[in-house]
Amino acid sequence: MKRRNNRRNNRGNNRRNNHTKSLRVRALLALAVIAGSLAIALTTPVRLGLDLRGGTQITLETRSTPTTDADAAATDRTLEVLRGRIDALGVAEPTLVRSGDHRILVELPGVHDPKKAADVLGRTAQLTVHAVLGPARTADGATAPATDPAKERVLPDDSGQPLRLRAAELTGRDVEGADARFDQQGGAGWHVAVDFSKTGQDKWRQVTARAACHPAGDPQRRVAIVLDNKIISSPQVDPSVPCGTGIPGGSTQITGSFDGTEARELALLISGGALPVPVETVEQRTIGATLGDAAIEAAAWAAGIGTALTALFIIAVYRLMGLLATAALACYALISYAALAALGATLTLPGLAGFVLAIGMAVDANVLVFERTREEYAARSRPTPRSALAAGFRGALSAIADSNITTLIAAALLFAFASGPVRGFGITLAIGVLASMVSALVISRVLAEYAANRPAVFRRPRVTGIASTGWVRDRLLRRDPFLMRRPRRWLAASAVLAVMAASGILVRGLDFGIEFTGGRLIEYATSTSVDPDRARTALTDAGFPRAVVQSSGDTGLTVRAENLTNADEATVTETISDLGGETKKVRDELIGPSMGDELRRNALIALSLALGAQLLYLAVRFRWFFGTAAVVALAHDVVILIGAFAWLGKPIDGVFLAALLTVIGYSVNDSVVLFDRVRELLARDRTTPFPRLTNRAILQTLPRTVNTGMGAALILTALAVLADDTLADFALALLIGLAVGTYSSVFTAASLTTELYPPRKASRPRPSRSTRRHSPSGQNAVATSEKTPQYPG
Asked: What is the 3-state secondary structure (H, E, C) of 76-130?
């Protein structure tokens, strides 16, 4: 007996030693992560996106020509030419990156005049020098076409007179440099001095030598300098130059009615060289600095208030453990910030919302652990906070991993298929999910287990917040409602909700944003409030009958139209200024038709892949009927959310796509937690009918669903109330999705799983030997009255 007691004591001591050792390892890991994050946060600033600090973002797409393919190599050469042009413009901290084989993303912080930037970047700057063959006029005054397009071309000069030009004698490759100069002595004003290379000097002398053989005043004595198929200068060779000699020295001057800015830009284009292939602006976004500052301030207030309310709620429900979880949330914020800085990721406005939203996901993991700990504490005969916590973390790990993986799938799809600031949301969301797992499974666990080992806590277990099952769980256990008694009624109710929402799409239609339709959107801040109808009428009179005008905030106004050029934009701005007094342009977004088609196609691909990926993951992780039920519930949520925005007249844009994919992840989270509990109950109980098991799983996981939903709802409500219009719509979509997702995971997914679960025929128990011996027929007769169907585990 004494030896047996010694062995028992040794095993207990070994378990305590192992527990202490693992706690120390986790504590050291947590300290290392916090210390590293703090060091990075103090030394490396996070790079803000242009929608937060102001500036212009331009997406250029290279185009093939008959002689040059716009492949990756041509795009790389084009990028280097553009980099030289931007450096010459003097823009601080510009960013140029190649996106795919045909796209170049240009970010210009502090540049709020997109017209100037686009003109400098978008011009091909193909410089050529041509001998003039004569005027291109017919007898009746019409422009005569080129007789041989391979050897000559017809272009109008700066006065509008069409000239016949010989094929190019010199190109931009023959130019060594160009400089803008001001002629103070001669009074000619600004001009551009062009210096030719050694081979270019010989070609220049030859073309001027031939031109000098014609009499003064003859058009053939002129030499045309062409930039991007436009004659920018066509001077006559000076009469002092003799025939056959030409102009030596290898330089010339381009004169015209230039001001200083135009002369410097022309010199910049010529010096930087021609683009290997033409480029087209397919997307352009300009954000004013004041709008970015206001967005940061609003999001910061929303994050602070939402986090504070969430922390108070968690502390009120889980007491000491809730307080420690709040401390872990502060560490989560530090880790997320440091990860953004270390990776060099850009924090955009939707990304800032994702950062705030991930706080709710970090709360979700803590709630899963604490609710599971409450169950373990209530189920044990001699419970202690420490043993219940260890079992709670162990039991909740599977559900936490599954739910976060589904959210990471949505984040990956956003990064792969979204564009602009919305892609930043995908990055921030992924970082937030990973940081929340570190916060909940490492830091929160260290703090909770350390507190649970204190003697004062051991003597007063109720102070931990896990010694009681909670008000929601107690009420459910007392009433024990059988929610899955008639699952088809819940499915019918879900179908009715989906039909009502879908009718909004048919009746009201969808208000697609310019990301999906293409066009231009300009937001103005006016000194006095302007009625949208009045502005719409004024723009119609100005020649823009199809412009869509909407109010934005108290004194803001947005104008959206297709094919709005820079000249049209100036007219629209002038019209709004006449109505609203002092007017400031705070946002300007241009999406080309090709980019709009691509973003619309990518949105459909992302949505389809999201549903397919969730189905595949759940089918592999659970079973096919679980995955099918979850995806049907997701489709139900998607239809209701899109229909709600149709009824409300809210825009369907890139930010809405981010919200939609996040809702998919949120909804799957709830379904995963429920299915994980159903699977666990099935493994322990193979005799209870499946509807009753599912009902038990719903009642056991509903407290977690309510508490995590409250935590996320508090943060999202703060965003909806305090943030700007874009983030307010984002938060509204998530609030609707949160409510619908909670409903669908309990009543749609669970009900459909109950209907799809394959019942098995009642098994025939083996008769005993005495039954066989006394069987009247002498055979293995079996008598059974069991009628309840058995369900496979």
From this structure: HHHHHHHHHHHHHHCCCCCEEEEECCCEEEEEEECCCCHHHHHHHHHCCCCEEEE
* 722: Cβ contacts below 8 Å, ≥ 6 apart: 298, 301, 302, 305
Of the CA atoms within 13 Å of residue 369, those in its CB half-sphere come to 28
Q: Rounded to an integer, what distance in angstroms lies between the CA atom of residue 219 and that of residue 164?
A: 10
511-512 vs 651-652, strand pairing mode: parallel
Judge whether residue 420 has pLDDT over 70.
no
Q: Please state, in angstroms and rounded to a whole number, the distance separating the CA atoms of residues 369 and 362.
A: 11
Does the CA dihedral 46-49-54-58 come out positive or negative?
positive
Q: Which residues contact 348 (CB under 8 A, 6 or more apart)?
A: 49, 51, 52, 420, 421, 422, 423, 424, 425, 428
Look at strands 103-109 and 55-62 and give their pairing.
Answer: antiparallel
Beta bridge partners of 591: 283, 519
CA distances, 312 to each of 84, 318, 322, 580, 678 (Å): 54, 10, 9, 44, 31
Q: How do 189-196 and 175-183 pair as beta strands? A: antiparallel
Q: What is the pLDDT of residue 251?
A: 78
Structure tokens belonging to residue 256: 């015209």
Please count the residues of the chain: 793
Residues 6+ away with beta carbon under 8 Å from 184: none
Lowest mean pLDDT among 24-28, 380-384, 548-552, 706-710: 380-384
Closest CA to 354 of 396, 419, 403, 410: 410
Answer whether 124's CB lies under 8 Å from 279's CB. yes
Q: Give the contacts of 304 (CB within 8 A, at least 6 positions apart).
A: none
Which residues 6+ apart lie within 8 Å of 504 measured at CB? Answer: 643, 644, 646, 647
Cα Rg for the chain, rounded, in angstroms? 36
Q: What is the DSSP code string of 731-778?
A: HHHHHHHHHHHHHIIIIIIHHHHHHHS--BPPPPPPPPHHHHHT-TTS
Tell me the per-residue pLDDT of 73-118, one tens digit each, with 9 for 90 and over: 888 888 888 887 777 666 767 878 887 788 888 888 877 666 766 6
Q: What distance in Å separates the CA atoms of residue 203 and residue 550, rounded to the nearest whole number?
A: 59
CA distance 20 to 31: 16
CA 234 – CA 492 distance, rounded (Å): 79
Exposure letters 691-702 (e unless 16+ CB within 10 A, then b): bbbbbbbbbbbb
Return the amino acid letter for 153.
R
Instruction: Say whether pLDDT at 762 is over 60.
Output: no
Contacts of 224 (CB under 8 A, 6+ apart): 129, 130, 131, 132, 155, 157, 163, 165, 231, 233, 234
pLDDT band at 310 (very low <50, low <70, confident <90, very high): confident
What's the CA gap between 403 and 666, in Å, rounded? 8
Spatial separation of the C-alpha atoms in residues 513 and 596, rounded to whole Å: 9
Return the SS3 of 553.
Answer: coil
Sign of the C-alpha dihedral computed for residues 47, 48, 49 and 55 taken in this order: negative
Give the CA distances from residue 499 to residues 104, 248, 388, 410, 504, in Å, rounded to whole numbers and listed in that order.
43, 82, 46, 26, 9
What pLDDT score was predicted for residue 640?
A: 94
Other residues' Cβ atoms within 10 Å of the Cβ of residue 752: 25
CA dihedral sign of residues 699, 701, 705, 707: positive
Residue whose structure tokens are 């073309």: 207
519: left (phi over 0), alpha (psi -120 to 50) or beta: left
Q: Which residues share a beta bridge with 193?
A: 179, 253
Q: Which residue has the tokens 């619908």?
A: 740
Residues 322/465, Cβ–Cβ less than 8 Å = yes
Give the side-chain half-sphere CA count within 13 A for 38: 8
pTM over 0.90: no
4 pLDDT above the threshold of 70? no
Per-chain mean pLDDT for the chain = 80
